[in-house]
Design brief:
Helix content: under 10%
Order of helices and strands: EEEEEE
Strand content: over 45%
Largest sheet: 6 strands, mixed
Distance between the termini: 18 Å
Number of helices: 0
Radius of gyration: 10 Å
Structural class: mainly beta
Number of strands: 6
Length: 54
């Protein structure tokens, strides 16, 4: 699963890859994310210590 436009620790917008319930990658936000995966886009999500909150 790919969650796009997340702000880890309130920082810059990023995309977060999750596999088997774990974060496997955090990369700079790419507006043209890979659509072959389940993609969740929500510009209000903030990731803090592995928790995702609005």
């Amino acid at each position: 699963m790919l969650i796009t436009n997340v702000r880890p620790w309130g920082g810059e917008p990023s995309d977060v890859e999750i596999q088997d319930g774990r974060i496997t990658a955090i990369t700079p936000h790419a507006p043209q994310a890979d659509r072959d995966r389940t993609v969740i886009h929500n510009g209000r999500v903030v990731a803090d210590g592995g928790n995702l909150t609005e």
